[in-house]
Design brief:
Chain lengths: ~190, ~230
């Protein structure tokens, strides 16, 4: 009994010593990590503003083509002026689209970029390069989004405008008779 | 050793993930903007412009032949270079002579009209202007005579009988050409479907108003008489 009591006392003394040591340690750390003195300095109110990426066209909400009665050898033509007016430069502008309809595989389509001309009137258009030459359906299949879009131009100044000319002719293929197609052309700018 | 490995693997993964998260924004555009033209629409005519050429039989012609009641009419452009005599029993002149008739499209005398026939393998749709381009001259290239022809476009059975009239016209000119010349004769704007297995027939007769018999030339690359649809 006496031996057991002595062991218990020794154990309690050891635990008590450890506890006291920990309390002392915490107090030392806390007091040592506090600054004795402090001071601050602040920068004046900082301002942040984003640049812009703005792209527009001159179609005023009208479709380029509403072509009925198409026949081989009589192409339809339309122009569209694309203007970059964002503050962030340079900005790349790409073109892509979607197509549908049984006529789309039989519509030979040429897309040129240049200067001059405007929506509804290609008079004065001077091509700088050909962006695409192939069928309308192939255009939609291969250029469906930004990632696969056709590089049209890079805007290095604000504003930057280019005219895109579309020429569409139906192939002399009897399968193209009496059918129709639709297409949407989208231009996207990214900084 | 195992403890070291257990420590390094999670640390490595964490560093890799942090690098991906840090680098990804650099490959994305900061800002973007689009402009789209509203949907454009395209529609083709029901029937493209095309032609059916007037031929002799055989075609291309390789020599003179006697006249034939019905001749072929098809989309193959003539390749012959020499205008042969297509009615050696009537005269010795190149081309075909059609004698002056009296009964218009009802003419029964085969020397007073000629028919060309196109048997359709599938339905043949006519939707637009129909024009007969015909090379012709007054008989013996006689000048200062009035010429008149009657044209009929017919829907017949494959043998050329049981015909329905689709369109017709009479064409008169004074003087009629005294050398081979092409005339374009308008048959109007038509909307008609010739059923599969039937025949589209063009009837050319010399009308009673003509001063004399008329000559016709076809089935050579120079005299490419044809029925044109546009």
């Amino acid at each position: 009994m006496t031996t057991h009591y002595r062991k218990l006392m020794i154990e309690l003394t050891r635990v008590g010593a450890i506890g006291v040591a920990l309390v002392v340690l915490v107090l030392l750390v806390v007091t040592r990590s506090e600054a004795a003195f402090s001071d601050t300095t602040a920068s004046a109110a900082n301002a942040f503003a984003t640049g812009t990426v703005e792209l527009g066209d001159d179609d005023a909400g009208s479709a380029m083509f509403s072509a009925s009665g198409m026949e081989p050898g009589t192409p339809v033509v339309a122009c569209l002026t694309i203007t970059y007016s964002g503050t962030l430069t340079p900005a790349g502008v790409r073109m892509y689209g979607s197509t549908s309809g049984a006529l789309a595989p039989y519509l030979d389509t040429t897309i040129e970029i240049g200067a001059g001309g405007s929506f509804g009137d290609c008079t004065g258009f001077a091509p700088a390069s050909t962006l695409y030459s192939g069928t309308l359906s192939n255009f939609g299949a291969t250029h469906a989004n930004w990632a696969t879009g056709l590089a049209t131009f890079t805007a290095s100044a604000n504003p930057t405008a280019h005219t895109v000319k579309f020429t569409v002719d139906v192939q002399s293929n009897n399968a193209a008779q009496g059918v129709a197609a639709a297409a949407t052309f989208t231009f996207e700018a990214q900084s | 050793m195992r403890r070291l490995r257990n420590l390094l693997v999670p640390v490595g993964l964490a560093v890799a993930g942090l690098a991906i998260v840090t680098l990804m924004p650099a490959t994305e555009a900061a800002f973007s903007n689009t402009t789209a033209n509203p949907a454009s629409n395209f529609a083709a005519v029901a029937t493209f412009p095309h032609a059916l050429f007037l031929h002799n039989d055989p075609s291309p012609p390789v020599g003179d032949t006697t006249s034939q009641l019905r001749l072929p009419l098809d989309s193959t452009a003539p390749t012959g270079t020499i205008l042969r005599n297509y009615d050696s029993e009537r005269d010795a002149a190149p081309g075909l002579v059609v004698y002056k008739g009296n009964d218009g499209l009802a003419e029964a005398n085969p020397t007073k009209f000629q028919r060309w026939r196109h048997v359709t393998a599938s339905a043949f749709t006519i939707d637009g202007d129909v024009t007969l381009h015909l090379w012709t001259a007054m008989q013996d290239f006689d000048p200062a005579k009035r010429g008149a022809i009657i044209i009929g476009l017919l829907d017949c059975d494959s043998g050329g009988a049981s015909c329905s009239l689709i369109a017709s016209t009479t064409f008169t000119e004074t003087p009629w050409p005294s050398s081979w010349e092409e005339r374009s004769i308008d048959l109007g704007t038509l909307s008609y479907v010739v059923s599969a297995g039937r025949a589209l027939v063009i009837h050319v007769g010399t009308d009673s108003l003509s001063d004399d018999d008329l000559w016709f030339a076809y089935d050579t690359n120079s005299f490419d008489s044809r029925l044109e649809f546009s």
